[in-house]
Amino acid sequence: MTLSRTFAMFVKELVQLRRDRLTFATIIALPAMQLLLFGYAINTNPRHLPTALLMHEESDLSRSILAALGNTSYFRVTRLARSEAEMDRWIRSGEVQFAVEIPAGFERRVRRGDRPAILVVADATDPVASGTALAALEGVVRSALARDRGLPDTTAPPAAFEIRQHRRYNPAAVTSLNIVPGLLGIILTMTMLIFTALSVTRELERGTMENLLAMPIEPLEIMLGKIAPYIVIGFVQAVLIVGLGALLFAVPVVGSLWLLAGASTLFIAANLSIGYTFSTVAQNQLQAVQMSFMFFLPNILLSGFMFPFAGMPGWAQWIGEMLPLTHYIRIVRGIMLKGAMLGDIQGDALALLALMLVAMTVAVRRFRRTLD
After folding, report:
1. Were 196 and a residue from 11, 276, 317, 342 both cysteine, which residue would form a disulfide, CB within 3.0 to 4.6 Å?
2. Tens place of pLDDT per residue across the chain (372 aa)
3. CB atoms within 10 A of CB 302
4. Domains delineated in the chain
5. Do residues 145 and 160 touch, judged by C-beta distance below 8 A?
6. How many angstroms separate the CA atoms of 81 and 90, rounded?
């Protein structure tokens, strides 16, 4: 062993690394991405959560209560409901995180000392996002009464009304009810991406691409033929995860199994299309795997699986909306825990369909350039 030969090998590896631009970019970009995502986008204490309001009367005390809710910085009224059915539909579809209902004759009953109740409904499928906000409601009563009477909070009279909290879909805040549906999307994303990301690069490295190109087959037919078997595999994985989740963790499937199966198939196809696009860009299997993990990281961090989606800044939510996992987590939690129907998930389903079509279009066009 000599230092000169060791140094020569060291220089050789540096030269190869410099020539492999994708690997070099991964070394630089991955730490930077992690720093930006963790430092700016991740917030475990979400604020300004979308809230629906149903007011059966408008009074000074009602406005004081709304102002006190806003002062907590956890609630942001984004929708005004006309009926309880409309309010329930927004909660079920995930359009709002909370719903506040102020009953008729509320202020008159407060003046008489009847101690009426305000209903606050929370979507508890994400306990982290709803727990802190609900805990902040304890000070709302005192703040509202003090504001209504023009007094400091410390001199406000005893509570003349109560706030009743309804934690829907996961009232006991069981972690598994939140994690297992998300894990279904995480596992499918990881496996489907890697499976198809290696499909074209494997043909290139094995030398079988020439035989494939010599066949009378179109690029779209090649892509669909490569994707189809993995749709079946992904569907089997989904059935296994849902079954084990119900058996081991008592995770219910309140909604339609057929709707869940259809949405899962669409999600699997979208991830397979993205993975196939990576395979047409990468020059070898290592690059394909690197691309897959570069895409997988923001899916975990920005989809609402690990951290509350509503707690992220606007630019991070905008990026998250372009990730299939974001929409699938909303769909699967809605179907399994809320009993959501097609009308409740149609927006996220259309987003998945659009992402799949875009990825397929890019993959086919990229593969045609490979033919040249």
Report:
1. 276
2. 677 877 788 787 777 777 777 667 767 777 777 777 777 777 777 888 899 999 888 888 888 888 888 888 888 888 999 899 999 999 998 889 999 998 888 888 888 888 888 899 999 888 888 888 888 776 776 666 666 555 455 445 556 778 888 999 988 888 888 899 999 999 999 999 988 888 777 777 776 666 666 777 777 787 888 888 889 999 999 999 999 999 999 999 999 999 999 999 999 999 999 998 988 888 778 888 888 888 998 898 889 888 888 878 888 889 999 999 999 999 999 999 999 999 899 999 999 999 999 998 988 887 755 544
3. 25
4. 49-168 (3.40.1710.10), 174-371 (no CATH)
5. yes
6. 9
Q: Which of 78, 76, 66 is nearest to 140 (CA)?
A: 66
The residue count of the chain comes to: 372
Cα distance between residue 310 and residue 48, in whole Å:
8
Task: Count how many Cα atoms sit within 13 Å of the Cα of residue 212 in the half-sphere of its side chain.
Answer: 20
What number of CA atoms fall less than 13 Å from residue 331's CA on the CB side? 29
